[in-house]
Structures are given as structure tokens and as C-alpha cells.
Amino acid sequence: MSNLDIGIWGTVLALVMIALRVPVGLALGLVSIGGIAMMFNMNVAWGMISATPFDYVGQWELSAAPMFLLMGFVCSSTDMTRGLFMSLRLYLARLPGGLAITSVGACAFFAAASGSSVATASAMSRMAVPEMLDNGYDRGLATGTIAASGTLGSLIPPSVLLILFGVYAQVSVGQLFMAGFIPGILSALIYIAMIVIRVKLKPELAGTVTVDPTPEERAAALRDVWPLPTLILVVLGGIFTGIFSPTEAGALGAFAAVIIAIMRRKLTRKAMIEAMRQAVVSTASIFIILIGSLFFTRFLALSGFPRAFADAILSVSDQVWWILFAVAVIYLVLGMLIDSIGLLLLTLPILIPLVNAADINPVWFGIIVIKLLEIGLITPPIGLNVYMINGALNNRVTLPEIFRGITWFLAMDLLTLIILIAFPILSLWLPSIAY
């Protein structure tokens, strides 16, 4: 076989292995080593294994990922979201679908503090879903709200996916963070508008709300709101004003989360150990996938497949709309089978040459890709956030009920995607001001 044939069949084999639940990093690494050995010899493959991982994983920018993960898990382990959720609950509960709106707002704040969709969905599902179910909310609406709103952690900075995209595509992580801010808020507002309209048309979806707080209770609730807004101000304020790099902001954010938890007397030894354990496990998983994807990048580059793929797409049309349509199809189909981090790092070696050849703005393209990955987080049959919520609730709400509940949110995600494609300024306005 030619090198190109080996690259094509290697990609197909990697997808089959991932579909069979072989860990993404392992599948990409094994295919890459075998493919390079076939194209050259085993000595070349072993040379890549010995020289490549440290040079890549040792990049300074990547250290932001474990810091933001630690910050998010500290917030989750010390109940830093509860005060904000309870306060929003008191003020918004009487609106149509008020508890669901509260959940979207709390998820957006927590996403901005944690940078992780999984952490957001896990923390909020234990808190918000039982509250909605106890007030008679439709089971699909209650769980669908958290599953979809949890994906805001992929887009609202500081996002781990944006960090990985920036490092891999050689794009400024700071620019990506600013580019994701307005689209993330737009996604949350579209969710809220959809909830209000649905509940207006079908009031039984939101059950019967029994919240009737006194002015004193409202004032008391506000006293415990400050932790998350303070953390967000420290992290995003430092990045947006240029005081901190994303890596420095991640370290400061993790430190600030610990200090805030101590001030609130919530940081027990058990909570800190659990947060550190989760951060280490998540970081190790991400870095294993990163190393596998790096091998895969070298393998594909040697085979010539990315260039052949770019030429094939551009041979149909070199219009941006066609390229984005092809990319969207790839992500929407593969997003049903592969988790978001694995899918991002599997596809970037193939897509980056295409983006460069078409002269597409990489920051804007990064936001579109992350939005597509958000959709994958709630798309069956994988839908990682859906399974996370199902497990967190101990199967109190079944998987079919949750997938039924996210249908409307998937439609809103597609609407947001169309808006972001039609109006690039939504992603590029803030970066253009700062840079």
C-alpha cells in the first residue's frame, strides 16, 4: 500500500477501535506506531515514542488545564455553587420555568469558574434536578436543562477544550477565551428564551412552584452569592485585562478557590483530597489522549492524508460555507460516538491543514468547533453529560427520559451554531479589541 492508503486505513481503524470502546489515547497511539512502522520501519516508530511525548506535554500553556480542573473540582467539592443557586432560585422561581432558568444561570456561572462541562453537569445535577422534580417539573425538562446547560463549560472561559484547541492549533488561548465569552452567554440566553416560551405554552411542564420568600430571606440569600462571582472576576478579569496569562490565571484561580473555601469553612481534608484526586485523574486522562493524538498527528503527516483530505474538500468548493458544512457533518456524526476531547484531538490533525488552506480565521473556527463539540456532549448514543446526570441521580430519571428532554436544547444549539456562523463578529469582537 502507498503511504496515503496506510493513512486512510489507519484513520478508519482508529475510529473502529474507539467505537469498540478502546481508550482514545491507546487507539490513536497503537494505530500511529503500527502505521509508521509499515511506512518506514520499527526503529522510526520507536524513535517517535522516545522523543515526542515530553517535548509536547512539557509545553507551558498546557499547565493551565490541570489548574482550571483543580479550581472546578474545589468549587464542586466545597458546595461553592449552592449559595448562588439558592439565591437565584428565590428571585427567579416565579418566572415561567423559573427553576429551570435558575439552573441555566447557575450552570453558566459554574462553567465560568470550572472550565469543565462534566464538572458543571455533575455538580448541578445533584443540586438542581431534585429541586425541580420536587416542584413537579417535567422529568425531561429538568434533566435536559442541566445536561444542556452543563455544556456551557466547553465555551464559556476558562474552557479546557479551548485550551487544548489553542495549544494544538497554535492559536492564542487568551484570544480563544475572549472569543468564547459572547457565544457562551448567547447560548445561555437562547436556552432561557426557549424555556420561557415552552412553559408559557404548556404550563404543566413547570409544575407548581411553592417558593414565597420574605424580603429578609432574599437578603440573607444574597450574602452567600459572592464566592463564584469573585472567582470569575479574578480569573477572567485578569485574562481579559492582560494582567495574567491563562496559565497564571489558572494557578491563581485554583489558589483563590482554596482560599474562598477556607473563608467559608467548607474546605475539609476530605473535600481537598477528593478535589485533588479528581483533578489528577482528569489531567492524566487528558494527557494520555494528548500523547496519542500527537503520535496520530505525526503518522497522518507522514502519510499525506491531511493534505489529500483538504484537497478533496476544496475540490468541491473553496467557499467557507461548504467547508464549515463538511466540518459540521464530521463532528455531528462522530460526536455521537466519541467523547469531546478525544474527538477534538482526533480530528484537528486532519482539519487544521484544511483551515489553513482555506484561509479561515482560526479563532472563529475554534469557536465553531467547540460549539459542535458541545452538541456532541448531549447527542445520543454517547452524550457524556447525559450519562453523567443519570449516574449522579442514581437512575432516578432514566436515560430515555433525559434524551427526550434534550431534544429542544439540541434544536437551540443548532440555532446558536447558525448564528455564530452567520455573524463571525460575535466571536471576534472582543479579541479584536484586546489584540
Question: Explain this structure to me?
Answer:
This protein has about 425 residues and is mainly α. It contains 22 helices and no strands. The protein has helices spanning about 5-20, 25-40, 40-55, 65-75, 80-90, 100-115, 115-135, 140-150, 160-170, 175-200, 215-220, 225-240, 245-265, 270-305, 305-315, 320-335, 340-360, 360-375, 385-390, 400-405, 405-420, 425-435. α4 (about 65-75) runs antiparallel to α14 (about 270-305) and α10 (about 175-200) runs antiparallel to α22. The protein is globular and about 75 Å long. The model has no long low-confidence stretch (mean pLDDT about 85).
Quick structural summary:
The protein is mainly α. Helix content is 78%, strand content 0%. The chain has helices at residues 3-19, 24-39, 42-57, 64-77, 82-92, 98-114, 117-134, 139-149, 160-169, 173-201, 215-222, 227-240, 246-263, 269-303, 305-316, 320-334, 340-358, 362-377, 384-392, 399-405, 407-422, 425-434.
Overall pLDDT score: 85
H/I helix tally: 22
Any low-confidence stretches, pLDDT <50, length ≥5? Answer: none
Strand content: under 5%
Strand count, sense and barrel status of the largest sheet are: none
Gyration radius over CA: 22 Å
H and E order: HHHHHHHHHHHHHHHHHHHHHH
State the share of residues found in helices, binned by percent.
over 70%
Strand tally is 0
Outline type: globular
N- to C-terminal distance: 47 Å
Q: Pairing-aware structural class of the strands and helices?
A: mainly alpha
